[in-house]
Amino acid sequence: MTDIPDELIRLERTAEEERARLAGLTGEAYDEQRRRFCTASDAVHEAITARAEATGTDPHEVEQAVRRAVRQAQEDPAVE
């Protein structure tokens, strides 16, 4: 699977950013950030499921392709 929509990449990046913001938080601040992360993560999974159904692809394959696409974009020096 090579054709990953930009929207899926954006959703995955957002979820990862929300997850990273959990670092160092405690108490209520942690709980609030955890909810943001869960909401973002749920959105990614819903989009992956929809993409898998639309393309007849296994959802796990779509998820792995999205993660690879995000990782490759982050490693591209032209992106930063």
Written overview of the protein:
Helix content is 76%, strand content 0%. The chain is mainly α and 80 residues long. The protein has helices spanning 6-20, 27-55, 59-75. Residues 55-80 are annotated as: Disordered.
Give the helices and strands, then pairings.
Elements: H1 6-20, H2 27-55, H3 59-75
Region (Disordered): 55-80
Number of separate helices: 3
Gap between N and C termini: 25 Å
Strand content: under 5%
- Largest sheet features: none
Element-by-element helix/strand order:
HHH
Uncertain segments of ≥5 residues (pLDDT<50)?
Answer: none
Task: Label the structural class.
Answer: mainly alpha
Radius of gyration: 14 Å
